[in-house]
Write a structure and sequence with these properties.
By secondary structure, this protein is α/β, with parallel strands linked by helices. Helix 9 runs parallel beside helix 14. The protein is built from 16 helices and ten strands.
Length: 463
């Protein structure tokens, strides 16, 4: 993204059953082995829970009784592969339960338009053939995508899947604040069905995803921490040996020291080079690490917002989305019909703007990596999983600072994944409240979003 490009075109869904079959048959390899630097993989076992509920919902969908949205958790980049695995299990469970289903058992899905930009154009091609619909997250309304989604919601041969968290947070046991899009699409689906004089009921089914390690590899975690300490210029320590409860405390302390050092350095960086108003010694003011981190995230976003002329309002996630969209408008130029026709001067200026926009967007990427980090996450439960997740988030931040390439996350051992199908939430039952007034509609969307958040949280095992 260091040059100006033509405007981003909409990638139309073009579902292809043969491509789906090939992808499903490739799942054992895709889940276990890293085929792309940004894909951790290394998943040796997946447990699918309550699949029979999903089989029955698909039966009702295929017999014309309901329209269905699948609301997946999105904590890691592996989630789409796990979602594909879950859907591939539905036919087997259906046969065992005597539920009649037609092939294919799949879903359309909404994905973020930027994914093919950093992962490669091949991903846009693949997602299109798997029934994906790209959406600009930062636009107030991406009408092209929304119209396509609404059409498929009432007329498509497949349900619709989406991730209401909007982006990964790196933590299996923390559900990020949900965006209202899933709830709003559900109500729009009810509205469109009523306008068409159709009687189908609309449901959203929450689907939880959680990851863990088959066997804690303390030596691998120690190796990663030593690498992070060396990258920060700290004295690398070696603490591979000891009883497990002792190792947990030692590694937690090392992570705390790393986090505090990194925050302190970034505070100095933004204070000195971006002239941001941060305390010269926040520790003396009594600020804890979480408070300082949130102040730092706010400052990092302001650096981008000031450049793009954006207001600093809304949640951190909302601000990230606005910054992302603003950056894209500087890089993918909708105001220039033919970049090749530009004079060398104007092409150079366009590239200059694109480079600056890309740099400003990096501040937002740092914020995305740290948005869910809290001190309490480790204090509540010193598990290997939580220690590893926190260490990997610090790795992501340092990797973004050190290089422009997508970070190649290190493996810390074979992992398991658990996918849990929750109880379906009726959107149709809430319609009478939604349609009563504009204020009631807003509140109905908020309430449904909150209920969906609670349902996803309940599926997290913290043992």
């Amino acid at each position: 993204m260091h040059q100006a490009h033509p405007k981003l075109e909409f990638i139309s869904p073009a579902f292809n059953g043969s491509i789906l079959k090939i992808t499903q048959r490739s799942l054992p390899i895709l889940l276990k082995f890293r085929l792309k630097r940004w894909l951790p993989a290394g998943i040796s076992r997946i447990d699918a829970v309550n699949v029979e509920t999903l089989a029955e919902l698909y039966h009702q969908f295929q017999t014309g009784k309901i329209r269905l949205l699948l609301a997946f958790r999105h904590c890691q980049v592996d989630d789409p592969l796990c979602g594909l695995y879950l859907l591939s299990r539905v036919p087997q469970v259906a046969r065992r339960k005597g539920i009649a289903l037609q092939s294919p058992i799949h879903s359309h899905f909404i994905y973020e338009r930027g994914m093919p930009l950093w992962a490669g154009a091949w991903l846009g091609w693949l997602f299109s053939r798997l029934g994906g619909i790209p959406i600009h997250r930062g636009k107030p309304f991406d009408w092209t995508a929304i119209k396509m989604v609404r059409k498929l919601l009432i007329d498509g041969d497949l349900p619709m899947a989406l991730a209401p968290e909007g982006a990964t947070n790196g933590y299996s046991e923390i559900v990020s604040p949900l965006e209202p899009g899933a709830a709003q699409l559900g109500f729009w689906c009810v509205e469109d069905l009523l306008k068409a004089n159709r009687s189908e009921q609309v449901y959203i089914v929450p689907i939880g995803i959680q990851y863990g390690y088959v066997k804690p590899q303390w030596s691998r975690l120690d190796w990663l921490l030593r690498q992070l300490e060396a990258d920060c210029g700290l004295l690398a320590r070696n603490s591979k040996r000891g009883k497990e409860h002792e190792l947990k405390k030692i590694y937690a302390q090392r992570l705390f020291c790393l986090g505090e050092y990194l925050i302190t350095e970034m505070e100095q960086f933004y204070r000195r080079f971006y002239h941001q108003n941060l305390p010269s010694d926040p520790r003396s003011a009594g600020s804890n690490l979480t408070t300082r981190l949130h102040q730092l995230l706010d400052v990092a976003l302001r650096v981008g917002e000031e450049y793009f002329g954006l207001q600093s309002k809304g949640t951190i996630i909302e601000r990230c989305r606005r910054l992302e969209e603003a950056g894209w408008t500087y890089i993918y130029r909708e105001d220039i019909s033919d970049l090749k026709a530009l004079s060398p001067l104007h092409r150079g200026l366009a590239d200059w703007v694109a480079q600056e926009a890309n740099l400003r967007m990096l501040h937002m990427r740092l914020v995305e990596s740290f948005v869910a980090v809290t001190e309490s996450y480790l204090q509540e439960n010193l598990s290997f999983e939580r220690l590893a997740e926190t260490a990997l988030l610090i790795f992501d931040v340092l990797a973004r600072i050190k290089t422009r390439k997508m970070p190649r996350r290190p493996r810390l051992g074979w992992r398991w994944a658990r996918i849990t199908v929750g109880e379906a939430i009726s959107v149709s039952d809430r319609w009478h409240v939604y349609q009563s007034s504009r204020q009631a509609a807003k509140q109905a969307v908020a309430d449904l979003t909150q209920d969906l958040h609670i349902a996803l949280e309940k599926m997290i095992s913290k043992s």
